[in-house]
Design goal:
With about 80 residues, the protein is an all-alpha fold. About 45% of the residues lie in helices and about 0% in strands. Helix 2 crosses helix 3. The longest helix is centred in the middle third of the chain and has 10 residues. It is globular.
Length: about 80
């Protein structure tokens, strides 16, 4: 991550969000189709379950790094 925005230069790091539209329903549908709970998915990609819940409720968007994790082989078994 690189410092951006209002906190740049203050030693804080800000996540870079993935560009384009974010479709929370696709994450939810893929997770459910795989038989995973939000807790299961969170453990597989190394985030808290509340993060996955926030994505699915559209309260937050995954960073580029998290999109990479969602798309990686760590989620083998996903369609």
């Amino acid at each position: 991550m690189i410092p951006i925005g209002q906190n740049a230069g203050q030693g804080r790091r800000v996540a870079i969000l993935a560009p384009g539209r974010f479709d929370a329903e696709k994450i939810r549908a893929a997770r459910k189709e795989s038989g995973m709970t939000q807790v299961d998915l969170a453990e597989r990609i190394g985030v808290l379950p509340t993060v996955v819940n926030d994505w699915e409720k559209r309260r937050a968007r995954p960073s580029v790094r998290m999109f990479d994790r969602l798309a990686s082989r760590r989620l083998s078994g996903w369609p």
